[in-house]
Design a protein that fits this description.
The chain is α/β, with parallel strands linked by helices. It is 32% helix and 19% strand. Bound molecules: phosphoenolpyruvate (PEP) and manganese (II) ion (MN).
């Protein structure tokens, strides 16, 4: 249930109302917008509140029953777009951000070279996997702790904030200086992991599970938000269908739909969405046109030799060309690239 307060509701009226609701055993989440405050009431039997006639309390404008199973991440609870600030890089609400870098961190030379190249092309953040979820246990599984050290080195060299994947809550302490934690497609429903990142005050990219419905994806985001962390960036990365010509099927329609349902920024990952470098640019541009708030793109200085995801990685030159086109399309749909 959502309680919308009147624009002129006093602090005292609000506090009294919150006390009353908490006293009945409900959890409260407050969202302060530009014009009014919204109080989200979670848990318990909301019929009790309806019977109390909450809508007649002083300072209350309206009471809305939210029928969707996710509440905190829904637009009903927070009508304005959420803007997430990653060390000065804004994403959402008209701010477009591009994250680029290799699938895996492989060596100091590789990550620093790619970081410099993507920065020069205009990327806003650097990606690189240190802990890699691989389908086969015999594939390269990442440099782990050393990979994070190398990412931090590349951050020092370029000033780019870093994004890297966390697979296991036991590694969380290694991520202290990481700017954005990525939760990968395979872990979208790892509820213990979601709960742990929900306790942090750090932005999280939540990739869509490759077989997840949009509702399941938003409920996974709700797990993070319900622990107190609202800095969630949703990432469409393709879903598994019967089609085998592409690695996944890029669900572009999910971008505008999720933006209708949720206030959270939505970015697009056409690298994993297609699995083919030659399809990355058209799907990236389609995502921008569909209203995405950002892109995450795999870039490698030598894709033929990459230890993971070489076939879907762009060389720096192609990435530069893509950035030029993104810069032209984004303003058409009301986004700004700095
Ligand atoms: C990745 O970003 O390299 C990755 C493993 O992504 P996903 O979880 O979307 O497959
Ligand atoms: Mn990858």
């Amino acid at each position: 249930m959502i309680i919308v307060l009147k624009p002129d509701a006093t602090e005292e009226q609000k506090e009294k109302l919150k006390e009353k609701i908490k006293g009945l055993g409900f959890d409260i989440h407050e969202s302060t917008g530009k014009e009014r405050t919204i109080i989200g009431v979670i848990g318990g039997n909301v019929n009790i509140l309806m019977e109390l006639g909450i809508e007649t309390y002083p300072g209350v404008e309206r009471v809305i029953r939210v029928l969707k199973p996710y509440k905190l991440v829904s637009r009903d609870f927070h009508p304005e777009d959420t803007i997430i600030d990653v060390n000065g890089v804004k994403i959402g609400g008209g701010h477009f951000a591009v994250i680029a870098g290799p699938c895996s961190v492989e060596s100091e030379k590789q990550i620093v070279e790619v970081a410099k190249a993507v920065k020069e092309a205009g990327a806003h953040m650097l990606r690189g996997g240190a802990f890699k979820p691989r389908t086969s246990p015999y594939s390269f599984r990442g440099l782990e702790k050393e990979g994070i050290r190398l990412l931090l080195l590349a951050k020092k060299e370029t000033g780019l904030p870093i994004v890297t994947e966390l697979m296991d809550p036991r590694d969380i302490d290694l991520f202290e200086e990481v700017d954005v934690i990525q939760i990968g497609t395979r872990n979208m429903q790892n509820y213990r992991l979601l709960t742990e990142v929900g306790k942090l005050d750090k932005p999280v990219i939540l990739k869509r599970g490759y077989a997840a419905t949009i509702e399941e994806w938003l409920l996974a985001a709700e797990y993070i938000a319900s622990e107190g962390n609202n800095k969630i960036i949703l990432c469409e990365r393709g879903i598994r269908t019967y089609e085998t010509a592409t690695r996944n099927t890029m669900d572009i329609s999910a971008i505008p739909l999720v933006k209708q349902l949720s206030h959270l920024p939505v970015i697009s990952d056409p690298s994993h969405g297609t699995g083919r470098w030659d399809l990355v640019e058209p799907m990236a541009l389609a995502s921008v046109a569909a209203g995405a708030d950002g892109l995450i793109i795999e870039v490698h200085n030598n894709p033929q030799e990459a230890l993971s995801d070489g076939p879907q990685s762009l060389k720096p030159k192609r990435f530069r060309e893509l950035m030029e086109k993104v810069r032209k399309i984004a303003p058409v749909v009301g986004s700004e690239l700095v």
